[in-house]
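W.,

You were right to be curious about this one. When I first looked at the sequence I had no strong expectations either way, so I just let the prediction run and decided to look at it fresh. Below is the sequence, 319 residues in total, followed by the output.
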Amino acid sequence: MLVLGVETSCDETSVAIVRDGREVLANIVYSQIGIHKKFGGVVPEVASREHVAKITLVFEEAFKKANVKVEDIDLVAVTHHPGLIGSLIVGINAAKTFALTHGIKYLEVDHIKGHIYANYIQEDLVFPLIALVVSGGHTELVLMRDHYRFELLGETLDDAVGEAYDKVGRVMGLAYPAGPIVDKLAHTGKVSYKLPYVYLDKEDYNFSFSGLKSAVLNIINTANMKGEEINVADLCASFQESAVRVLVDKTILAAKNYKAKQIIVAGGVAANKGLRNLMKSEVEKLENVRLSFPDFQYCTDNAAMIAVAGYFKNKTQSN
């Protein structure tokens, strides 16, 4: 089965063509990071206009790279939520128009489920599994007992972890997007600033990062008032240690409680080296639990993951 995926939930315009849920024939991604960098964040109206300007070109490039014809496509899958409303509408309208024009089956896919299925591109999923979804807009722990069966165990009660990274980095004077820079600097510094580990209830799977973010801001403001210099690398290391430790500990707790055979990490923050290293070291302490991260190109928003999720949504609906 050939699935055409469309993703426009935020600031990437992406179209992919994937065979049988795994073989990526084309995954074209047009990123708007350079445009939004001067604003210090994504401007929804600007993002929508860029999607309109690029969506047709991205469609054409995907077909050219995949070397397939329109009549070869069996299914069209598109992100329909969550995301920026204006951006989502561009992708939905493009995908729906394409499907209706050519008489192709059309499915709408949840963005978060797409991130989870990015892991399937490289290896099979083993159930039951725990998925940690971490990005600029989302932080969730999800239990899967089978394909396309999702149970939300916990989520952030305030800031997503990726959002906290960007906000903290911005206050430190780092360029947008600050998250990857914070991660890079953290590996050159040492944990020397006292920051909270926000677990809420230790048996709870929910997260909170606003307090950690505020603690970093307080350190910076206090230093500025006293005329003291902040060691940015050390502060990045301290922040990352607090954020990542809680993410990993709650994921490991869920894996133990639900007797998971696999832990997968998904979303843009899945590219974070600090998270990858700590998760690997903790999963190694468990018996018979596999760990999976997407390839770096599938961590951030892309249409290949939507095509894969669409493939399995269609498969489960057909059974």
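Here's what jumped out at me. The chain has a mean pLDDT of 96. And, maybe more interesting for your project: The two ends are 15 Å apart (CA to CA).

Coffee later to discuss?

I.
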